[in-house]
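anyone else get weird line breaks when pasting these?? whatever heres mine. first is seq + tokens for prot A
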Amino acid sequence: MSESSGAAARVPDQIRHLGKVHHVALIVRDLDESLGFWRDMLGLPVELVLPIEHDRVTIAFLPVGESKVELVQPTDDTTGVARFLASKGEGFHHVCFEVANISEALMRLEMDGIELIDTVARKGAEGPVAFIHPRSCHGVLVELIEAPGGPAWAALGYPAG
């Protein structure tokens, strides 16, 4: 058995069969300038522009098909996002997958030895979220978001859908 097929065998079915790609996040220096490309040149509609004060970023979501492009601009030079921008420049930051039950997904991943950044869901712009460490994902930061109306929504104070 190859190393990759052995690793896949350890990942529970509920995790291996993620929902859709919710979004792909890109770090940008200037949100307005980036919207000039993504919105104005490529024609993607802007669904939402929102400051996320606790993360010290401003984000924009631009839907495309069933997924979205998320543009993330740091608003504080001391954050991880700002450090990422300073060291790597603008570009791909993370991919976000939708799951039915984020608490269950996190528990199963942790039980299988996957390194998590968040062991419990936290409030995100569009629902409960948690991050998986890039060391467990071949260098890619992976975010999970719970599908609308899932069990963590009420616990984190989201309005009933």
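and prot B, same format (seq, then tokens)
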Amino acid sequence: MALDPGEIAALVPMELVALVVAAFAGSVVFGITGFGAALVTVPFATHFVPLPFALALFVLMDLTNAFRIGFENPKHAVKSEWTRLVPTILVGTVAGVTLLVNLPRQAATLSLGIFVFLFALYSLFNRAQSRIVSTRWAYLAGFAGGITSTLFGAGGPPYAMYLSHRGLAKEQYRATMGFATLTSISLRTIAFLATGILLDLKVWTYAVAIIPAGLAGLWAAGHLFRRISRDTLMRAVALMLLASGASLIVRAMS
């Protein structure tokens, strides 16, 4: 016997619908820019589910997306840049997961809100010409990315800030960024398994819907990038992140 619309709605929690929409939108951003999915998905998701649950759920989607994008053109990756980042990404991941399991929920929400808000401001107002920075900044970028990857699900911004100031060609930047992101997400997944955050059965149940939505977002990104500039998209995302970060800060302080 067929189910009526009311019965179908009862079987699909509204939080899952919201998370699927977030997965699609985040993957569109990731597919065009090479990073930033978690900056869209995690802040939005924390309005419906606890932060640890959101991080565990979207790390599965992020890992799938990273493998899909990370090996598109590996020959363009600058291996020396990637290998400089890896050691401190590992150290930062350990530090980040330690903070995650010990921070009170309100403090974690406030920290996420501030991080997202500040990154949005950086994206909006950083229009200066890129200058080449020393390779020594790779170690700070790796450490910061490892922490923000596990604590907020967003390791990409520190890597992007560093690599965008290394004078790389567009193809080199995207490929190297893909390797750094894949490394960061893989380590985050291992850390979440080790701490038990990723052992919640509900996470894996929701992932059945989240991962296909993410892959659909990557497919859409492949068609959109020809019609919208990266700068236009990043400005729109930054404005959205300003609102998202501000709402998280207000909610944490209320």
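btw re prot B: The chain is about 80% helix and 0% strand. Residues 1-11 have pLDDT under 50 and may be disordered.
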